[in-house]
Structure formats: C-alpha cells, structure tokens
Amino acid sequence: MDYIQAVVLGVVEGLTEFLPVSSTGHLTIAEKLLGLPTDDAGVTGFTAVIQTGAILAVIVFFARDIWRIVRAWCVGLVKPELRGSLDHRMGWYVIVGTIPIGIVGYALKDVVKNDLRSLWVVAAGLILWSAVMVLAERRGRQERAERDVGMRDAVFVGVLQCVALVPGVSRSGATISAGLLRGLDRVTATRLSFFLSIPALLAAGVFELKDALGSGGVGLGPTLVGTVVSFVVAYASIAWLLRFVAGHSIASFVPYRLALGVVLVVVLGAGWMSAT
Predict the structure, then answer these.
(1) Residue 41: pLDDT above 80?
(2) In the predicted model, is pLDDT for residue 231 greater than 80?
(3) What are residue 184's DSSP bridge partners?
(4) Residue 53 burial by Cβ neighbours in a 10 Å radius (0-12, 13-18, 19+)
(5) Rounded distance, CA 92 to CA 196, Å?
(6) Domain residue extents for the chain
(7) How far apart are CA 113 and CA 189, in angstroms?
(8) Is residue 59 within 8 Å of 118, Cβ to Cβ?
(9) Which parts of 140-185 fold into alpha helices (H)?
(10) pLDDT above 70: residue 212
(11) CA Rg, the chain, in Å?
(12) Fewest CB within a 10 Å sphere: which of 229, 261, 262, 269?
C-alpha cells in the first residue's frame, strides 16, 4: 500500500465511520477500486487500525463528557450516594453495552475477516438494513432524553451493535436505530452510539495492529498516515452528524444506501468487479 492509497482509505474511514452508511462496506469497495486484496490480513488489519483515528476523534470531541463519566464512575465505586447520578450510570451502560460485541466479535473474528469480506454481503447489508432504519424512524417515539437512558437501553443497543459486524449494515446505523426503537430521541441515540463505539473500535484496532504492522503488513508509515487522516475527517463528521440528527431523520441516508447497494448488485452481477 502506498501513501496515496492510505490517504484515500483514511478519508473514506473518517467520512463513513459515524454516518449510517457502513464504513466497512465503503472501505471494502474503496480497496477493490484501488486494486488492494480485500482478503489480505495486512489490508484487513490496516482498515481496523485506522478506525482508531476515528475513535480518537470521538474521544477528543467528547473529552469533557468522557472525563466526567469516568470520574463519576470511579468515585461512585467508593461513594454509594453518587451511584444514582447519570454519569456514573452511563459508565456502567458503556461497559455492559460493550460486552455483547466483545463476545460475538471475538467468537466470529475469522468469519468476519474472511467469509463476510464479500461485496455481495455489503450490498445485502446496505439494502436490507435500510428497512430497519426506516422502521426505527417511524416506530421510534423519541420521547426519552439522555437522563432517561437505562441499562435495558444499553444492553439492547449493545446487542444490535453486533449486527454491524456484517459489512454494509453500519455500526452507527444499527446502534442509532436501536436507540430510536427504545424510544430515545435522535440526539440521545446518536450520543449513546458514539460512547459505545469507543471501547469496541479501540479493541478492534489494537487486536489487528500486529497484522497491519507485522511482516506482510502495510507498514508503519501508511498506517500512521491513514490513521491521522481518519482522525481529522472523522472529527468534522462527528460535528456535522450531531447537528444533522437534531433536525433530520436517519432515514435521509436510506436513498444513498439503496442506490449504492443496487449499483453493487448490478456491477457484481455483470461481472465487472469480483466480490472478493
């Protein structure tokens, strides 16, 4: 992988990680267009590692919120009177909500890295999950704010985060939809999605680091460049998305998802591009 390819993939990752359009799907498409082997361990590791750039953008963007939650959670462990605070509870929500993706992701790591790395899977994920996003917007009452979030919400969102292991579904599309189906307002569902993304994607990046940098990997230079570019672009994407969801439905992304999915089906069906 050269530096131009690393920059392109960094931009794609930063733009799509938090939008409900599937970063994995877009990265797989971009890798194919750049002539990179999507089933290569080094390339797969690279795409996981540059996600840490996007996650660092979340940490920086929400630094005050994260510090407040971490501090409240730690203090609440020794001071029972503080355990009812939203920040202390949010700490537990993130921990418990991350357990499902940790278990499923580790158990199915080989399936995700190999069997699901197909553009047919991406096309199916883009098209089929769009229906869930529309359903979530129509059924979601959006009557509950962040102060109303409970453990059941965190578990439900955390379980649906596992569906995002399928390329094309979109982690944010799955988790925001889950929050809406639980009656959370769109901004609250989006913020919860961001918080739950931190441990999940950081763990994935660290786990894949050896493949990206080791023998046969893409190397330190391109990986570092891709991660930095991902950070910068993702930071801007986070700010934009929070403003967007305050007044717009996540179903606004469905026409794009459907169009991309249909284009993939046509391209793959015509044999113009291989699925793997």
Answers:
(1) no
(2) yes
(3) 144
(4) buried
(5) 11
(6) 3-269
(7) 28
(8) no
(9) 151-161, 171-181
(10) no
(11) 18
(12) 269
